[in-house]
Amino acid sequence: MPRYFFDLSEGLADIADVDGTELPDDAAAVAHGYEVARDIMRHQERQTRHYCISIRDQSGAVVGNVPFAAADETIASLPPLIRAAVERGCAQRREIAQTIHALGKSVRQSRALIARSRRRPYLCAADGKAVC
Fold first, then answer.
1. Domain map of the chain by residue range?
2. CA distance 74 to 68
3. Residues 6+ apart with CB under 8 A from 3
4. CB 52 within 8 A of CB 65
5. What is d(CA 63, CA 25) in angstroms, rounded to the nearest whole number?
6. DSSP state of 59
7. What is the mean pLDDT of residues 115-129?
8. If you average pLDDT over residues 1-7, what whole number do you get?
């Protein structure tokens, strides 16, 4: 049975699934992704609605994405246009957070490079790795 990996993205950092789960096929993996999303967001829908799960197969190819807003049962009763607007807003919030995080990382790397060029110490870590 193939193994699928469910990586969580919330905008600031990604959490990679290193263990994975054995499931029969891609459709079962996507269905499992929706279940996982509902479990994670239970009673925290507003705070986690912008999260997303990316589903990878054994080869690392992405077979599906599960935006939490699409799995959120608390907004299921909204009219389709409003629900779609909420889903778009959540996706944009995640993308903005990812962009801000990447910019901060670039600033830290630039500061380390400038300090190194001036032969001054500068210690900074990004994603658990030393920048300089």
1. 3-130
2. 11
3. 20, 21, 22, 23, 57, 58
4. yes
5. 10
6. T
7. 78
8. 94
